[in-house]
Amino acid sequence: ETVLTQSPGTLSLSPGERAALSCWASQSVDSNFLAWYQHKPGQAPRLLIYGASTRATGIPDRFSGSGSGTDFTLTISRLEPEDLGMYYCQQYGNPPRTFGQGTKVEIK
Amino acid sequence: EVQLLESGGGWVQPGGSLRLSCVGSGYTFGSYAMSWVRQAPGKRPEWVSSINAIGSNTYHADPVKGRYSISRDNSKSTMYLQMDSLRPEDTAVYYCARFMAITIAPSDYWGPGTLVTVSS
Fold it and tell me: Are B110 and A93 an interchain contact pair (Cβ–Cβ within 8 Å)?
């Protein structure tokens, strides 16, 4: 199966700063079928990006996705206090679907 | 507004059974494929099972094959996960999720999850 590795483990930034979260795949992700989710404790996960770079419905344009093959990035251009939480990448092109171990975003 | 809500979690002894339910609202439930995803404490999320829109095709991850069964009742806007022969390693928060209505799709809506604890 395709193993996804995310870095950094924790990102601590101030409001207004730029955040870059990385996701590496152990093998090429078919057709860039790569998604990013935000997850806050006790809440439902929220789809942010799919197809590596397409924002999901209602997602602010400060969230953007890029990358292809085995190397993907989620960028939050200007951090807002409500952006704190865990962020997971998921590949859905190579069965079985797999997730990264997550990056925790903290707001200073 | 699309909403998904899981229920049926709880504590069970190893070897026991539980049935989880997921009720969908705010959309035409029977038009979308669905899945279950779980996350054990301190671990990454793990896909468990999927079912197509009409319930004719089901898929299960290797760790749960032969023990779990996914099904749905579109007349009740409800999906189920029957979990038998439960093991301590099945302890996790279980989420139901809806697949987007495109070919090869991610999950666009999720429920808040229900906790399953398998312990003696």
Answer: no
